[in-house]
Please model this.
Amino acid sequence: MKEQLDLLYELQQIDTRIDASTKRLEALDDGAGKRESLGIERAHLADLESALEDSSTKQLDRELELESTEEERAEKWSRAYGGTVSDPKELASLEKKIEELDRRRDKLEDQLLALYDAVEEQTTRRQQQRDTVAQLENEIAGIERAFEADSAELSVAIAQAQDERAEIISQLNADLVAMYENIREKNDGLAVVEVNERLCTGCRVSISVMLLDQLHSGKKIVRCENCRRILYYKD
Model:
């Protein structure tokens, strides 16, 4: 029985390694959270790009309109005061049109000043957002590289431990394995625990002298009276 108990203890160590590696594997950051944030930041960047494009288009339209207004005003001015118009009514009509063009020019210039400020601000915000997106992309690339390396390492470790486990189980009594698995299921994966200074290391409860004697004899499976785990005494 001592040999079976030694194997059972070794099986517990393997299972503990498998459980720990599995938890680490499940807890690895694959970058999903960062990718979600990246999607939000990219959408924000797209909005900024669209707003800047709209402002730039309006700016160009106003510049063309101002240029056209200036040309028309220059033409009206030349006609009105170039000495070619002698009719007072025609002159008055031209002067009225020049005043109208002056007002339009002033309005366009005000609009352009506002647009220049908007385009400058939006260009700065777009660049800042591009930097944010680029930083996130770099962070995600690093996280994904680490995830691939760590997950591959852990998967190999788990597979090797599973092979070791199968080898140990092949040497154990089937009923003993069934008992072990049942106890593990009820005790968070821990079925076999050492006794250290008369204490069950599973529940920290003191072991009776009678159980200690049975444990030292190595003739039978001894279970903690409190947590019902299998007790193991390392020589």
User: Anything to note?
Assistant: The domain at 31-169 is CATH 1.10.287 (Helix Hairpins). The chain has a mean pLDDT of 95.
